[in-house]
Amino acid sequence: MSTILIADDEARIRRLVSDFLKRDGHSILEAADGREAMQILENRRPGLDLAILDVMMPGMDGFEVLRELRAQERSDKHLPVMMLTARAEDADQVRGLEDGADDYVTKPFSPIVLAARVRTLLKREGRAAAPVEQLGQLSINELRREVLVSGKPVDLTPKEYELLIYFKNNRSIALSRESILNAVWGYDYFGDLRTVDTHVKKLRAKLGDCGSMIETVRGYGYRFEG
């Protein structure tokens, strides 16, 4: 689909984001610091569709990379940039947006939410098609965050929606409760595994007949058969 640069000095963050974006069909380039990111941007920019830049990187921080990128690019060659950082202060977000960032995500984050924001940003820039999937009587439009069962809208909470998207993106795969918790609630979430069971029960109920798509894998977790 698209080629995306992930620049972050934490290898586990790069791997986490990369794994989720690859599931959406994207090609991934990685940089471990700001200078490496800048080198990739200079050499590969015509083939890039999006850059995800961590703010706190050695060599050059994300703000410096962003400013240098915007200073070099032509007005008709705008590259969407998403800033990824643990700094949640309003002043930092304003600074990033004023420097030319297109979106701003703070850590810890849900990988599913980040992947959805990537799809939205690419669509806004005209670099991706609207992902609408029809699974029997279940219809999912991720850009609109709309779920329909037999043509009728289903009112899901944010976490129920993210849970459904995670299941949908991992069809026919047995998913442990731990992996579901990490993916939907975030890698820094330390809640009880029963949280997963509670949300699955509510999601099944709201999906009605389509709730049977979420199968229980006894003693392990769940599997989505759509």
Please give a handful of descriptors for the protein shown.
226 residues, alpha/beta, four-stranded antiparallel sheet
Describe this structure in words.
The chain has 226 residues and is α/β, with parallel strands linked by helices. The chain contains 8 helices and 12 strands. It has helices at residues 11-23, 34-44, 62-72, 90-98, 111-124, 158-169, 177-185, 194-207, and strands at 3-7, 27-31, 50-54, 81-85, 103-106, 132-135, 138-141, 146-149, 152-153, 175-176, 214-217, 221-224. Helix 1 (11-23) packs across helix 5 (111-124), helix 2 (34-44) runs parallel beside helix 3 (62-72) and helix 6 packs across helix 8 (194-207). The longest helix has 14 residues, at 111-124.
